């Protein structure tokens, strides 16, 4: 389908910069083997079969720069479908820079961000949605985001879109065929069936669009804010949650993963606490956060934890606060703090209040109950992440919306009995937008936009 030929050979460091045991430099293009061979001392790489690894040295003139392992992948059985060489060297930035210089001098060109994956796409290795999933996979930081990206990369989402598209293509061509026989008044495309198909596709699109709410949560986390009166215990709670998270992350043996500030992971969902600067230092401060500032915090979040001191609040006061705080009706979780100091009578009164969690932030009591309630607020339960296709990409949402509109136009065109060529044009427009998701329809701008978001070396 894609006819693409590249004449130049690109090179980039595929591993993260900084000191590691090993770094990998990757080359792709017609000269990849020859460029490495030009500075390699060992077997003649040009004579070796694909998918083999060779030990040797890289030399700049007489000077040995490093001992390396060279992996060979002959096109089309490589990531980009071109000739690819991966050079594994020792992971010093100095060595990496020296080798890169050498390969550039030999005629390779520095790869742009995402250029390896772009070539893979242009050479038909996978479609656009799958290519985008590669970027998601690299940046996935929870079990769920990994699962969804992996599924998309393996083509789950693409298959769904392509199936819909193929059925529409069939009808579009039937209607266009009718145009050729305009004189004879024949009908190849059954209008009732077409209507059914369109409604069916629209239903699926609606489901996909709904899944984005969750997809976005999975990919980007839930911006969460803790609000409440001074001394309610907000900073105590935040520190408790973040310290537990820190302990969990550093408990995993052998991991060097950085602990992400102000973020906790519960059942695969990342809760990102926003605007925590004022809350993090535990020094006693009586900071009356202005109303305006509170509203601003709320506007950036999609989940609110309203924390209050159970020993100084009545249920009526709580109710009034909640209504006053949340004009936009965001998901809000009321959390009663300091149960360690509350009388049994007070606990019983608040026990009657629905959707309320009681904790002691200072003593860490009922943190599990709090976490459970947070997950429930995100409402993950209504979607089955294993079975259902989940849209995570804003670009796909946009294309799906435009497809939906074009299908609406097609339906009303059919209702009004407008001429076939106009109906055909509406269907074509739907096909165009649907095709942009998987890349059956692309423009240079679109491709640039997507691939420049990748990291260099991918
Ligand atoms: P903030 O102003 O909302 O951030 O409140 P702080 O976290 O600074 O807490 C205010 C005071 O309440 C501090 O003296 C805390 O030690 C205390 N505090 C916080 N959580 C609890 C709790 O669960 N039980 C008790 N007894 N005291 C708490």
From TrEMBL:
<feature type="binding site">
    <location>
        <position position="250"/>
    </location>
    <ligand>
        <name>K(+)</name>
    </ligand>
</feature>
<feature type="domain" description="TrmE-type G">
    <location>
        <begin position="221"/>
        <end position="379"/>
    </location>
</feature>
<dbReference type="InterPro" id="IPR031168">
    <property type="entry name" value="G_TrmE"/>
</dbReference>
<dbReference type="GO" id="GO:0030488">
    <property type="term" value="P:tRNA methylation"/>
</dbReference>
<dbReference type="InterPro" id="IPR025867">
    <property type="entry name" value="MnmE_helical"/>
</dbReference>
<keyword id="KW-0630">Potassium</keyword>
<keyword id="KW-0460">Magnesium</keyword>
<feature type="domain" description="Guanylate kinase-like">
    <location>
        <begin position="221"/>
        <end position="412"/>
    </location>
</feature>
<dbReference type="GO" id="GO:0005525">
    <property type="term" value="F:GTP binding"/>
</dbReference>
<dbReference type="InterPro" id="IPR008144">
    <property type="entry name" value="Guanylate_kin-like_dom"/>
</dbReference>
<dbReference type="Pfam" id="PF01926">
    <property type="entry name" value="MMR_HSR1"/>
</dbReference>
<comment type="similarity">
    <text>Belongs to the TRAFAC class TrmE-Era-EngA-EngB-Septin-like GTPase superfamily. TrmE GTPase family.</text>
</comment>
<feature type="binding site">
    <location>
        <position position="231"/>
    </location>
    <ligand>
        <name>K(+)</name>
    </ligand>
</feature>
<keyword id="KW-0963">Cytoplasm</keyword>
<dbReference type="InterPro" id="IPR004520">
    <property type="entry name" value="GTPase_MnmE"/>
</dbReference>
<comment type="subunit">
    <text>Homodimer. Heterotetramer of two MnmE and two MnmG subunits.</text>
</comment>
<feature type="binding site">
    <location>
        <position position="256"/>
    </location>
    <ligand>
        <name>Mg(2+)</name>
    </ligand>
</feature>
<feature type="binding site">
    <location>
        <begin position="231"/>
        <end position="236"/>
    </location>
    <ligand>
        <name>GTP</name>
    </ligand>
</feature>
<dbReference type="InterPro" id="IPR027368">
    <property type="entry name" value="MnmE_dom2"/>
</dbReference>
<dbReference type="GO" id="GO:0002098">
    <property type="term" value="P:tRNA wobble uridine modification"/>
</dbReference>
<keyword id="KW-0378">Hydrolase</keyword>
<dbReference type="GO" id="GO:0003924">
    <property type="term" value="F:GTPase activity"/>
</dbReference>
<feature type="binding site">
    <location>
        <position position="235"/>
    </location>
    <ligand>
        <name>Mg(2+)</name>
    </ligand>
</feature>
<keyword id="KW-0547">Nucleotide-binding</keyword>
<dbReference type="InterPro" id="IPR005225">
    <property type="entry name" value="Small_GTP-bd"/>
</dbReference>
<dbReference type="InterPro" id="IPR018948">
    <property type="entry name" value="GTP-bd_TrmE_N"/>
</dbReference>
<dbReference type="InterPro" id="IPR006073">
    <property type="entry name" value="GTP-bd"/>
</dbReference>
<dbReference type="GO" id="GO:0005829">
    <property type="term" value="C:cytosol"/>
</dbReference>
<feature type="binding site">
    <location>
        <begin position="275"/>
        <end position="278"/>
    </location>
    <ligand>
        <name>GTP</name>
    </ligand>
</feature>
<keyword id="KW-0342">GTP-binding</keyword>
<dbReference type="InterPro" id="IPR027266">
    <property type="entry name" value="TrmE/GcvT-like"/>
</dbReference>
<dbReference type="GO" id="GO:0042802">
    <property type="term" value="F:identical protein binding"/>
</dbReference>
<protein>
    <recommendedName>
        <fullName>tRNA modification GTPase MnmE</fullName>
        <ecNumber>3.6.-.-</ecNumber>
    </recommendedName>
</protein>
<dbReference type="Pfam" id="PF10396">
    <property type="entry name" value="TrmE_N"/>
</dbReference>
<feature type="binding site">
    <location>
        <position position="255"/>
    </location>
    <ligand>
        <name>K(+)</name>
    </ligand>
</feature>
<dbReference type="Pfam" id="PF12631">
    <property type="entry name" value="MnmE_helical"/>
</dbReference>
<keyword id="KW-0819">tRNA processing</keyword>
<feature type="binding site">
    <location>
        <begin position="250"/>
        <end position="256"/>
    </location>
    <ligand>
        <name>GTP</name>
    </ligand>
</feature>
<feature type="binding site">
    <location>
        <position position="252"/>
    </location>
    <ligand>
        <name>K(+)</name>
    </ligand>
</feature>
<keyword id="KW-0479">Metal-binding</keyword>
<dbReference type="GO" id="GO:0046872">
    <property type="term" value="F:metal ion binding"/>
</dbReference>
<comment type="function">
    <text>Exhibits a very high intrinsic GTPase hydrolysis rate. Involved in the addition of a carboxymethylaminomethyl (cmnm) group at the wobble position (U34) of certain tRNAs, forming tRNA-cmnm(5)s(2)U34.</text>
</comment>
